[in-house]
Amino acid sequence: MLELPIRIESVNGASDDTISVDELVIAGWTGRNKEAMEHHIAELEALGVKRPAHTPIYYAAAASRLTRAPTIEVLGGASTGEAEFVLLAGPRGLYVGVGSDHTDRKAETIGVTLSKQMCDKPIGAAVWPFEEVADHWDELVLRSHAMIDGERVLYQEGALKGMLPPDSLIHGYDAGGQLKPGTVMFGGTFVAIGGVRPATAFECELEDPVLNRRLTCRYAIRELPDRG
């Protein structure tokens, strides 16, 4: 079990709390446009990544992989960040955060579930109460920037209307329609602008244009030598 401190940034003020995380779930293939998603699945198949058994699909990952560290260490140069909204079920309700499903692409060709265990999952410190964004969820914008060849570039961007909404993801995972306290779920990502490629640093953010606020998560990537 991981004790995860959170900073709750509400329209009514800010407060601190802790979530005892005992379940980390990575939801994959969560796009609403099934045709576009099928095209992307076929592209990855051509690269050796196995087709998912169904969509969406829920990958289990070790809760200890969640991190707030400013730098993560990865094996070799085959891993990349993925900006995702994050649902966190605490003892006092459901929260929304932002994080990165950092993934080893080399391991992904062997097995996606395996790849989910290979890298830490950075997550931002601040969260919003879910009820404050529920009525305008589709207008939230997820984006990321990456440091590539010394240049900060826009890596991903899209409104959450392009992804399955939280209630659909939660019902797909739990027939009761609720995440049990202690569960953290990453909600899916957008395609990389210019293609998937490694970076030396990664930033992701979730913007709320209605309430004029944003959540952020930033980290550096240190490559460890892969000597076989």
From TrEMBL:
Q: Which GO terms describe its molecular function?
A: catalytic activity
Q: Which InterPro entries match?
A: DUF2848, Fumarylacetoacetase_C_sf
Top-rank taxon of the source lineage equals Bacteria
Protein name from the UniProt record: DUF2848 domain-containing protein
Q: Which organism is it from?
A: Lutibaculum baratangense AMV1
